[in-house]
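Support reply, case 0932

Customer input (verbatim):
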Amino acid sequence: MMLANASVAVNRRDPVAYLLLLVVGSLIALMLPLAKVAMAAGMSALGYAFWQALGGGLLLCLWSTRGATGLPLRRTWRYFLVSGLTAIAIPNALAFIVVGHVGSGLTATLYALPSLITYALALAMRMESLSPLRVSGLLLGVVGCVRILLPDTDGVGSGALPWLLLGLLVPLSLAIGNVYRTVAWPEGASPKQLAPGMLLSGALVLLVVLVFTGQIHQALAPGWEVAWVLAAQAAVSALTYRGFFELQRRSSPVFLSQLGFVIAPMGLVLAFLIFGEHFGWQVWLGVGVVMAGVVLANWRR
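Our regenerated output:
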């Protein structure tokens, strides 16, 4: 495996990359309300994460087999396994656990935090050069997220803090995956080929966890209501990760990591529209700071 020629720094004049950032971020934000509905109906977090990955992966397999050649598993199994762990199994399982305790709006803000970790890793691997303007923008985005997460803001009780701290493993895992997928991108592979492999590998890891912890029965849908949610989640996952890999191909890990700056405000908006979750002015102030950070991090003369 090697650094893919296709995975290059984002062309600042490429409107598709910015459109993908908006669309993929919004789709990921939509996953959290769907997860909350399913778990309120009795679905477990691990079981839901398994079906989310498996359903999306199978749909993408059907799509990718049309006119596309497969990739040799002996060259890609490690890429799929690490990608599935860092982008699917660990962050989604944790997010679906946390969402049941703090709500979908605040859980979405965790996705805004991988940017600085990704930038630090990219600097260490000489994939990015040090830019004071970009550092300032990313720091501003994180400050906005911290403002949202502080326990004294309206809508965030002190009892939610332990779950939010657990949720901090979500951005750490995502940041590692952002860099790894670019560095280890299999030569000659396309996003259409890589997306289903990552989802199915994540599903396999979650299945192993369910079996060895004796929780395999929790993967069963408790009713038709949840089954319909799982079907919707599979479709959303397929669209999300197909666009996700296309964005990774067109951009850099740091640009990709700013998906979280879309997920955080969109998650709050969806939580308000779907569940009527209310947030104080401090939370929305944090959203404004996050948006200012996005503009600053991507500012070019």
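We compared this against your earlier run and they match. Two observations from our side: Residues 1-11 have pLDDT under 50 and may be disordered. The CA atoms of residues 90 and 244 lie 17 Å apart. Please reopen the case if you see a mismatch on your end.
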